[in-house]
TrEMBL record:
SMART domains: HDc (SM00471). SUPFAM superfamilies: HD-domain/PDEase-like. This is HD domain-containing protein. Residues 60-172 form the HD domain. One of its GO terms (biological process) is dGTP catabolic process. InterPro entries: dGTPase-like (IPR050135), HD/PDEase_dom (IPR003607), HD_assoc_2 (IPR045509), HD_domain (IPR006674). One of its GO terms (molecular function) is dGTPase activity.
């Protein structure tokens, strides 16, 4: 353990949220310097949230380094409490968390739904890590094992991926910091200091219960107030419609300006079936999309031009929020109105009237549970002992967004 946390031969990074953090030279700095990791510096962590929260322009690279910092702190805490962790496991866990978001696409889930609807970013992440592992001659093999729920030490996997992992701890702290939203300030350091291991699984000592409750409530607030803010959803739907229209035009023989990587995904119906699709994917970042849409404002297709101009100049869709499904008659009415006002066909009006269903739950008792450890060595699910998790909180909260062109 001492070698991984030595101050000698390490890379010192000044993080705006946590201050100085050290990355040991070797495989970890090789990861940071790798082109696939550096690509994360060209992808915003919160995508289009900066349209509502102007300060939210931080990147996935910053988040990955922040998650690394919290992973290092969590591992030190567990070792101090007598949990035996090999040096190789420490480095593997640190490497895994540095790489956990490497498969994200430009503008994240928006482009995934358009270009790769049948492939998850988690699957892409694993493929990219395996590719880097080949370059590193197997140095990431243990890290890949830790990404699996079947690894020999489940608590190491749970630090990377669970309902209380360092990924979530960092993005709540970081996103609230840059967005200027106080609700996400969860006290990650306090939670980490109360972590422990019981029967090879990650647990929280009972003195950390209130901090965990605050974390769960803060996460819900951040989702509905920041990540799924109706204006953010409107911008995402406008971007999705813009890219869908561009796809349709390109596949019908229309010539559009696009970088080689973006052109590949606009052209191919099933890009993942091509041997080199991952290489094209790795070349995509936010700048490819923005530069293309800036040019598309002036194209001769009226629909794409209107969509692109609206996206670039923040003339976003108007949003109406429903608790249940949007009546089909309302959708038809809006499409007819848009078609009339813009003098386009009903088929083309589909690009200007969209719906999106979103659901989130405060806590799931079916997934990796957050378990509380008491002094008598009993373990209880946080849902069973928390006074802030009501029966209603155990169900998914759903909202339906109707997004349409502003008339």
């Amino acid at each position: 353990m001492d070698k991984s946390f030595s101050h000698k031969s390490s890379l010192l990074i000044n993080d705006p949220v946590y201050g100085f953090t050290r990355i040991a030279r070797g495989v970890l700095t090789d990861i940071v310097n790798h082109p696939l990791f550096q690509r994360l510096g060209r992808i915003r962590q919160l995508g289009l949230s900066s349209l509502v929260y102007p300060g939210a322009v931080h990147t996935r690279l910053q988040h990955s380094i922040g998650a690394y910092h919290l992973m290092s702190e969590a591992l030190k805490t567990l070792v101090e409490k007598g949990i035996f962790i090999f040096d190789a496991e420490v480095e593997a866990a640190q490497a895994a968390i540095l790489l956990h978001d490497i498969g994200h696409c430009a503008f994240s889930h928006v482009l995934e739904r358009v270009f790769l609807p049948d492939v998850t970013h988690e699957n892409i992440t694993l493929q990219m890590i395996e590719q880097i592992n080949e370059e590193f001659k197997g140095a990431l093999t243990l890290s890949i094992e830790l990404l699996s729920a079947d690894c020999k030490k489940p608590f190491l996997h749970e630090l990377i991926c669970s309902q209380l992992d360092v990924d979530r701890l960092d993005y709540l702290c970081r996103d609230s910091f840059f967005a200027g939203v106080r609700e996400g300030n969860i006290g990650a350091a306090r939670i980490i200091r109360t972590l422990n291991v019981y029967d090879d699984h990650l647990v929280v000592e009972d003195k950390g219960l209130y901090s965990v409750e605050n974390y769960l409530m803060s996460r819900r607030m951040m989702y509905w107030q920041v990540y799924l803010h109706k204006t953010v959803v409107a911008a995402e739907e406008l971007l999705r419609s813009t890219l869908r229209r561009a796809q349709t035009l390109v596949r019908n023989g229309h010539k559009l300006f696009a970088s080689p990587a973006l052109s590949f995904f606009l052209t191919q119906d099933q890009p993942q079936e091509y041997a080199d699709w991952l290489d094209h994917y790795a070349e995509l970042d936010d700048s490819d999309i923005i530069s293309a849409i800036k040019v598309w404002q002036h194209c001769d297709d009226k629909v794409l031009s209107l969509l692109a101009e609206g996206f670039i100049n923040r003339h976003l869709f108007k949003v109406e929020v429903f608790d249940a499904s949007v009546p089909p008659s309302m959708l038809d009415e809006w499409k007819e109105r848009v078609a009339t006002v813009l003098a386009i066909s009903l088929a083309d009006a589909d690009y200007f009237v969209t719906t999106r269903a979103v659901s989130k739950e405060l806590y799931s008792e079916q997934d990796d549970k957050i378990e509380i450890l008491y002094p008598d060595q009993t373990i209880k699910d946080v849902a069973a002992v928390s006074r802030v998790i009501s029966p209603d909180d155990k169900h998914r909260m759903q909202k339906i967004y109707l997004c349409h062109y502003r008339l």
